[in-house]
């Protein structure tokens, strides 16, 4: 039986459910990549959490049981906790993943958490805006890149306005799709370019 790769998704009350939605759909279905992932939700405990959109989710796994060796990707969405300086337990996990060489994909407020933890001090990154991260007092401002999504080694970052580019960047970092397929994905789901649809259909049937 072939090993199914695993993506672990951190969830917490008020997590921004739309931010990782495109990515999780593509990972779970593999519809344009041919590779399906097991998508596993992880929270501080196994108690249910409620997303910003009101979805109540019972986590598959508690944070204490999360092992980078059993993962192929860690996904960190935004949430209110990041804007009040919280989330240290989650950035500690991100540090463990990065130290283990497992990719970490952070979007929106999660980038502020990484900034406070010092994980952006020496890595190229982006976020909602340079000023947003500067407010954390972090030391990585010289590495900020004004792009929709940025990949630096095992770290992928994006702002809240860029869930499609976030998806494209993660799929590209994981080597799951060719550049033409990735460009078509962004073309269709961000720009509404109907000419991109046949490219994706060819990828789906490959």
What does this structure look like?
- The chain is of the alpha/beta class.
- The chain has one domain (6-176): Rossmann fold (3-Layer(aba) Sandwich), CATH 3.40.50.880.
- The protein is 33% helix and 16% strand.
- It is built from eight helices and nine strands.
- The chain has helices at residues 21-29, 80-83, 88-99, 109-116, 130-134, 163-173, 179-189, 197-205, and strands at residues 6-10, 38-43, 49-50, 56-57, 61-62, 73-76, 104-107, 149-152, 155-158.
- A hairpin with a 2-residue loop joins strand 8 (149-152) and strand 9 (155-158).
- Helix 1 packs parallel to helix 6, helix 6 runs antiparallel to helix 7 (179-189) and helix 7 packs across helix 8 (197-205).
- The longest helix is centred in the middle third of the chain and has 12 residues, at 88-99.
- The two termini are 21 Å apart.
Summarize the SSE layout with pairings.
Layout lengths: L5 E5 L10 H9 L8 E6 L5 E2 L5 E2 L3 E2 L10 E4 L3 H4 L4 H12 L4 E4 L1 H8 L13 H5 L14 E4 L2 E4 L4 H11 L5 H11 L7 H9 L1
Parallel strand pairs: 1-2, 1-6, 2-5, 6-7, 7-9
Antiparallel strand pairs: 3-4, 8-9
Helix pairs in contact: 1-6, 6-7, 7-8
Low-confidence stretches: none
Span between N and C termini?
21 Å
**What sequence of helices (H) and strands (E) makes up the elements?**
EHEEEEEHHEHHEEHHH
The total count of strands amounts to 9
- Helical proportion, percent range: 25-40%
Query: What is the CATH class designation?
Result: Alpha Beta
Strand order of the largest sheet: 5-2-1-6-7-9-8
List keywords for this structure.
206 residues; alpha/beta; 8 helices; Rossmann fold; single chain; 9 strands
